[in-house]
Write a structure and sequence with these properties.
- By secondary structure, the chain is mainly alpha-helical.
- Helices cover about 85% and strands about 0% of the residues.
- It contains 30 helices and no strands.
- The protein has helices spanning about 1-40, 40-50, 65-75, 75-90, 95-110, 115-130, 135-150, 155-170, 175-190, 195-210, 215-230, 240-250, 255-270, 275-295, 295-315, 320-335, 335-355, 355-375, 375-395, 395-480, 480-500, 510-525, 535-545, 545-555, 560-580, 580-585, 590-595, 600-610, 615-630, 630-635.
- The radius of gyration is 40 Å and the shape is elongated.
Length: about 650
């Protein structure tokens, strides 16, 4: 009685635990889906899905053949837009070709008085100057566009020029100004819910935080922007974004994870037009940085050499100083102090031409240390002074505090927005909570029933397994005694013939039936049933009778229809083989099924379960478990 009560308590306890696990499992599943949606792999899957549709959107994928053909047929403003798309197609491929199409679009816009085309072309011209490192020229042109721009009428151009201003401030090291401008753009984008503006605002902030070295914040904004890039099918931004994610991941998770991201980059290069020299120069620099961190300096140098060649041949003036800084750091890794000093000095020279003050600051600090280490104190003093001047002018505590204040305000605004959303949804949520509570209550009830059912089925399966084991042992014993009985069966067959001769009152049907049964038993010993083509007609032909009569004999004598009769023979043949032959039972289930005459695994499973109440996989698993504990010899009878 006490044991029964304890068992019941254990059952109730297990039921509650399983119910709790089910509820927690549901919650964890919902949470895991959110995590997957936010993962980098999920974004890459979306990019893959977008690329799979490239034939449906040739314009979005900047298919130059399509754009050229469309341009030849177009006129007016439509032609302007196609020329601007051709600019976009070539902006990272060929600076000169991109400029040619942009100039053509600008002139046609002026002729047609197409304001949108004129504004876009002027922005494009400013961006081309930025790519070449002419920050002053780019800023001057952007501010000229800004003075005549109606931001409500042309929100895309408004977003473009403000993003470019942020990028220029960032490259100059004016991070507080860049972040403030980026946050203002993001505020407006969120207020208007304009997808292009949201894409650009997040891109601007990602760039600023990347330069600041706040890689976590940078990646956060980068992935937010990627949402809108995919939504708007702005495929020209896919390569730059993957590069950014790889660089941030290298700093946050490590080089191996970053290399996996770049593998995806190289995969999509095979599917859509390549990124061009500008994109490749960035990729080479990232790869060089990754291989330095892995200690593979030769590979790092190989990629950096490629990056420098591309930058100098294309005159990417604002990439050159950063590539030179990487080269100097690589020289230091190989203990080549002399070349490191010369390269840092070159980086300062190139940085000063474009007012890239953050490069001047970092390189002057490095040179101050290197000259002091080599006892060149005058030079050390010179570069330390330069470093202090740049640091004090651009990186004061006041500026750093300003950035912190801007970030704090942004966080407060996000919290406030969330609070308003919660207040608006509060009433609806109450109803949802009640619904959820009802669902959870039902889930608990169902889980209790499921637990009870599971335990009941488990006990039933165990009982069926034990019965199947007993049957298998009996079958094995019978098979081992078969040879002993063969001689006796021969005598019995002779006696049957004598008895039939003496009993002349039997009908001819009974004699035919006996003959069929004798032949059938002989075929059973020859294991005819394991042939996959075994069927009623084939067996009737072997027994030299007709299928209808054979079916009647099996029904009367075997108390079964033909299919059940064959399945019974096969299962009875299989059980001792599974019991005795460990190698056979650990074969694939499909092979086991074929070996006993089944062409189809599902048919085998159904026949086994119909006869024995459990699946063959369950029986084999239980048998293997007992074999490991006790040894197969303990289970099978001795021979």
């Amino acid at each position: 009685m006490l044991r029964t009560k304890t068992t019941q308590q254990n059952f109730v306890c297990r039921s509650r635990i399983l119910s709790l696990i089910m509820v927690i499992g549901c919650a964890m599943l919902l949470r895991s889906q959110e995590v997957v949606n936010d993962s980098i792999r999920a974004y890459f899957d979306q990019i893959d899905a977008l690329i799979s549709e490239k034939n449906e959107y040739p314009g979005n994928f900047l298919d130059t053949d399509f754009l050229f053909a469309s341009k030849e047929r177009a006129s007016g403003e439509e032609k302007v837009m196609l020329l601007l798309q051709l600019y976009t197609a070539y902006v990272f491929q060929s600076w000169e070709t991109a400029k040619k199409y942009n100039d053509e679009a600008l002139q046609l816009s002026l002729d047609l008085n197409c304001k949108k085309g004129e504004l876009c072309a002027n922005y494009n011209q400013a961006y081309l100057l930025f790519v070449k490192g002419d920050f002053d020229g780019a800023m001057e042109l952007v501010e000229a566009v800004e003075r005549v721009l109606d931001s409500e009428a042309y929100p895309e151009t408004y977003a473009d020029i403000n993003t470019l201003k942020c990028d220029i401030y960032t490259e100059r090291g004016q991070y507080d100004v860049a972040i403030e401008l980026g946050l203002k753009l993001l505020d407006r984008a969120e207020m208007t819910q304009h997808d292009h503006m949201l894409m650009k605002a997040n891109a601007a902030l990602s760039h600023s935080y990347l330069r600041l070295g706040n890689f976590s914040m940078a990646r956060n904004y980068c992935l937010r922007g990627l949402d809108y890039i995919i939504k708007l099918k702005r495929t020209e931004y896919i390569y730059p974004k993957i590069n950014e994610i790889a660089r941030m991941t290298a700093k946050l998770e490590g080089p191996e994870e970053a290399l996996e991201i770049l593998e995806f980059y190289f995969e999509i290069e095979k599917k859509i037009p390549p990124p061009g020299d500008y994109g490749r120069s960035i990729t080479y620099m990232i790869l060089s940085d990754i291989y330095v961190s892995l200690g593979e300096l030769n590979r790092a140098q190989s990629y950096l050499t490629k990056a420098l060649q591309v930058c100098f041949s294309n005159n990417y003036r604002f990439r050159i100083p950063r590539a030179l800084v990487q080269q100097a750091e690589l020289y230091l890794k190989t203990k080549d102090t002399t070349n490191a000093i010369l390269t840092y000095e070159k980086s300062i020279g190139h940085a000063e031409r474009i007012n890239a003050f953050d490069v001047v600051k970092s390189s002057s600090a490095a040179l101050g240390d290197l000259y002091e280490r080599t006892n060149q104190f005058a030079k050390a003093y010179e570069y330390r002074t330069l470093h202090s001047a740049i640091r004090d002018s651009l990186f004061t505590n006041e500026r750093e505090q300003r950035i912190s204040i801007l970030e704090a305000r942004r966080r407060i605004k996000e919290v406030t927005q969330q609070k308003k959303i919660l207040e608006l949804k509060n009433e609806a949520q109450r109803g949802r909570y009640n619904t959820i509570a009802t669902i959870l209550f039902c889930l608990l009830g169902f889980s209790g029933l499921a637990t009870f059912g599971y335990l009941k089925v488990k006990g039933k399966n165990r009982l069926l397994y034990q019965r199947t084991m007993e049957l298998a042992k009996v079958q094995l014993e019978m098979r081992e005694k078969l040879d002993i009985f063969q001689s006796a069966e021969t005598k019995d067959a002779k006696n049957v013939k004598k008895e039939r001769a003496s009993n002349m009152h039997q009908t001819i049907d009974d004699e035919v039936k006996d003959i069929i049964m004798a032949r059938l038993e002989k075929l059973e010993k020859e294991e005819f049933f394991i042939q996959s083509n075994c069927n009623l007609h084939q067996l009737a032909e072997q027994l030299k009778t007709n299928p209808k009569y054979l079916s009647q004999v099996i029904n009367q004598e075997k108390k079964s229809n033909f299919n059940n009769y064959i399945n019974g023979l096969r299962i009875n043949y299989l059980l001792p083989k599974l019991l005795k032959d460990e190698e056979f039972r650990n074969s694939k289930l499909s092979y086991i099924a074929v070996s006993v005459g089944y062409n189809n695994l599902n048919t085998f499973n159904a026949a086994f379960k119909k006869r024995l109440g459990i699946l063959p996989s369950y029986f084999i698993d239980q048998l293997n478990g007992e074999s490991q504990e006790e040894g197969l010899d303990d289970l099978a009878p001795s021979i």
